[in-house]
Specification:
- The protein has three domains: 3-19 and 128-228, no CATH class; 32-108, no CATH class; 240-310, no CATH class.
- Helices cover 67% and strands 0% of the residues.
- It is built from 15 helices and no strands.
- The radius of gyration is 23 Å and the shape is globular.
Length: 322
């Protein structure tokens, strides 16, 4: 696996670890007038939930509706039911629908409520990752290797990917090739052993912090916004239509046995530009994807049809997951 392949996998894994799945909401909201009538008649059953405390409700949905590392357990679900006065699973479904109904009435759409829930989940994931990073640091996972810190190793790798002289970089850092090989082997081994992706996350952030690509500032803004679980402070540098089109151009190039990097170059981008751009656009999609899913889906279908017509007889699939 080449250096860039490792970079893509590294940053992809880091983003995956910090990205909560979109909330699965099957509830279809009632018309506003029906909500108001039900509220006036006392027909909405909120149990022990306060709609003004969205976090507590989103926490309950996560635990009641999912399992696994970030989901609930029999114990956590029993605690929620006892604390909120929920009698059984059937009662929970009624309560969940009622609280969602109030929130939809407040924010105007299920999409907006779903986006707020997605953002809350992102914050939970980010706090978990910060805990993993702190634990790795306490265990010596970030201790320098032969005097080379993870951030320094990432910065040199970033410069190598942009085309800087490998020899000049090592000479400037006072590192001979044998030492560099040992350092790289150890940092790669640590990342391979780290199932929490804490080291990978710090490496990805440091790599992009050192980026000299034209979208480097966008990648750094996305990393800062993700860490703070906040909205982006920059507008996307390209439209989603343009972004999807570049993705499809690479996919079609690969299906035809061509170099996807050459396809990027034809779009005026380097591999570093694309990595940085993907970091920004991916986080932007994450903060807007539930709210604007219908719009994004229309754009995707439009681009898909246009590129299929451009390359007849070639089948290309694009993974739009960030």
């Amino acid at each position: 696996m080449g250096l860039f392949d490792k970079l893509k996998k590294t940053i992809g894994n880091a983003k995956d670890q910090m990205t909560a799945p979109p909330p699965a909401v099957a509830y279809v909201p009632e018309p506003v007038e029906e909500v108001e009538a039900e509220a006036d008649a006392g027909q909405l059953d909120l149990a022990g939930f306060d709609p003004d405390d969205e976090d507590a409700f989103f926490h309950a949905v996560l635990h009641m509706e999912s399992e696994g590392q970030f989901g609930g357990t029999d114990e956590s679900r029993a605690e929620i039911m006892a604390h909120r006065g929920i009698r059984d699973r059937s009662h929970w479904q009624d309560v969940k629908a009622s609280v969602y109904t109030v929130l939809i009435h407040r924010y105007g759409s299920m999409e907006e409520v779903g986006q707020r829930e997605m953002n809350w989940r992102s914050g939970q994931m980010q706090r978990h990752m910060q805990g993993q990073i702190a634990q790795a640091a306490a265990g010596g996972g970030f201790a320098p290797v032969e005097g080379v810190a993870l951030e320094a190793w990432a910065a040199i790798n970033a410069a190598i990917v942009t085309g800087a002289s490998h020899e000049d970089l090592l000479k400037g850092a006072g590192i001979d090739q044998a030492r560099w090989d040992r350092v790289s082997a150890e940092w790669n081994a640590r990342m391979a052993r780290d199932t929490t992706f804490a080291i990978t996350t710090i490496y990805g952030n440091a790599f992009q912090a050192a980026s000299q690509g034209k979208y480097g500032n966008y990648a750094r803004e996305a990393a800062a916004a993700r860490a703070a679980n906040r909205e982006l402070g920059l507008e996307p540098p390209i439209s989603y239509e343009q972004y999807y089109e570049i993705m499809y151009e690479q996919a079609y190039a690969a299906k035809q046995g061509k170099d996807p990097v050459a396809a990027l170059k034809a779009c005026g981008l380097t591999i570093v530009d694309w990595t940085d751009l993907g970091t920004f656009m991916g986080y932007h999609f994450h903060r807007t994807g539930v709210r604007n899913w219908a719009t994004y889906e229309q754009i995707h279908k439009r681009v898909e049809a246009r590129l299929a017509a451009k390359y007849p007889g070639v089948q290309a699939d694009v993974d739009l997951a960030f």
